[in-house]
Amino acid sequence: MTLPLHPLSDCYGYDRGTPVDRLYIDVFLTHHRELVHGDAAEIKDDTYLRRYGADRLTSTTIIDIDPTNVRVTLQADLTAPGSLPPAAFDCLILTQTLQLLSDPTAALSTCHSALRPGGTLLLTVPSLARISPSGGPADRWRFTPAGLRHLFTAWPGPTQVTGYGNLRTCLAALLGEAAEELTETERTHHDPRFPLLAAATAHRAAEEA
């Protein structure tokens, strides 16, 4: 089998269809959609909040460190303590962002403080991925499911981590193939030896003051 020296797409497969990691993010958020409710926040835009929160949302906040993002309603550096308002959100969606932050542990602490008691962080990270074409110097980390579980050991509340992917989808993601170019079996099979993406649900304890 001969593989190309360069990817078929230089933008994760967006120009060919749906990037494979986005397929898994949708699977994860579909499974936990009932947790997307109330006062909720998302990074960079509110695509997933609107898709999965629907009429359960009371308000939406778009968080970004980038001041040029015209959609942002709260400019914040998640690695800076106190950068998010305390106990403000019932749900935080943080997809494919932690790998770009200098201190992932500090970011999780910031997210925990921003959740109300009983609130939930829904988070995804790449286990395998190309270096970001737009944020290369900031693209620092990759997390296996085991590594993500270890990162959450300091989280003071219930957490659950799941891995998604298999050898074929890992290859597809690196090659820039789209999810639509794979068979149903290739898309839905999960092999713990070859995670493409890891996802976590992390709750702030309901009885916490």
From TrEMBL:
<dbReference type="Pfam" id="PF13489">
    <property type="entry name" value="Methyltransf_23"/>
</dbReference>
<protein>
    <submittedName>
        <fullName>Methyltransferase domain-containing protein</fullName>
    </submittedName>
</protein>
<dbReference type="InterPro" id="IPR029063">
    <property type="entry name" value="SAM-dependent_MTases_sf"/>
</dbReference>
<dbReference type="GO" id="GO:0008168">
    <property type="term" value="F:methyltransferase activity"/>
</dbReference>
<dbReference type="GO" id="GO:0032259">
    <property type="term" value="P:methylation"/>
</dbReference>
<keyword id="KW-0489">Methyltransferase</keyword>
<keyword id="KW-0808">Transferase</keyword>
